[in-house]
Amino acid sequence: MGAAGLALGAGSARAARDLREGEWVIGIIPDGRFTIDMVDINRIPPEFHRQDVWFAGPEGPGTIVIDVAARQLFWVKRGGRAVRYGLSVGREGMGWQGAVVVGRKAKWPSWTPTASMRARNPKLPVTMPGGPENPLGARALYLYRDGRDTIYRIHGTNEPWSIGKAASSGCFRMLNQHVFELYAEVPVGTPVVVR
């Protein structure tokens, strides 16, 4: 669907701005009271497109594997296969690695910047409700270790141009259309390996 046929919902001001700033949006996914912008995948390098790929790692089916250096997330399937997605990862010095689990999931999550984020940028809100302007995007998978929230997330983004870059404060950003799909597939308790 071209820009002329684009149906815009609650996020219409942002979608219109995105169209003017490079025509990233090519359609929408209706999602309750909001819509999820579908990004023109051709604007993103091919290595960050959603792809079914062979997977040779030691992690078993049902595991999420995040390769920080490659800026890719793998949802491991049976038969040596995986679905691979492009990511935006933490800026230098904000990255981390290890084993965690998906402890919680949220649709159109609210965002509460950490104290350190607010110290770096005092203009940040204390909390922002979920919606198209929220930097956590359409879905979030909350990463837990030993039953505690790590404060890190796999989440959507309203900055599709950040995919493939080190641009976040430590979380893992995906295109909203991709995190929408992953969210539907991944149950709470899913193991996540960050390497």
Structure description:
By secondary structure, this protein is mainly β. The protein folds into 2 domains: 3-42, no CATH class; 46-194, L,D-transpeptidase catalytic domain-like (Beta Barrel), CATH 2.40.440.10. It has 3 helices and 13 strands; from the N terminus they run αββββββββαββββαβ. The chain has helices spanning 12-20, 115-120, 176-185, and strands at 25-31, 34-39, 51-54, 64-67, 72-76, 81-86, 89-90, 98-107, 139-145, 148-157, 166-168, 172-175, 191-194. The strands form 3 sheets. Strands 3-6-5-4-13-8-9-10-12 form a 9-stranded mixed sheet. Strand 9 (139-145) and strand 10 (148-157) form a beta hairpin. The longest helix is centred in the C-terminal third of the chain and has 10 residues, at 176-185. It starts with 11 loop residues before the first helix and ends with a strand.
Features of this protein?
single chain, 195 residues, mainly beta, L,D-transpeptidase catalytic domain-like, 2 domains, nine-stranded mixed β-sheet, two-stranded antiparallel sheet, 3 helices, 13 strands, globular
The counted number of beta strands is 13
Low-confidence stretches: 1-21
Strand neighbour order, sheet with most strands: 3-6-5-4-13-8-9-10-12
Q: How helix-rich are the residues, as a percent range?
A: 10-25%
Sheet with the most strands, sense and barrel status = 9 strands, mixed
Average per-residue pLDDT, rounded, comes to 87
